[in-house]
Amino acid sequence: MENFPVINMEKLNGEKRSTTMEMIKDACENWGFFELVNHGISHELMDKVERLTKEHYRKCMEQRFKELVASKGLESVSTEISDMDWESTFHLRHLPESNISEIPDLEDEHRNVMRQFAQGLEKLAEELLDLLCENLGLEKGYLKKAFYGAKGPTFGTKVSNYPPCPKPDLIKGLRAHTDAGGIILLFQDDRVGGLQLLKGDQWIDVPPMRHSIVVNLGDQLEVITNGKYKSVMHRVIAQTDGARMSIASFYNPGSDAVIYPAPELVEKEAKEEQKQVYPKFVFEDYMKLYAGLKFQAKEPRFEAMKTVESRVNMGPIATA
Question: pTM value?
Answer without folding.
Answer: 0.93
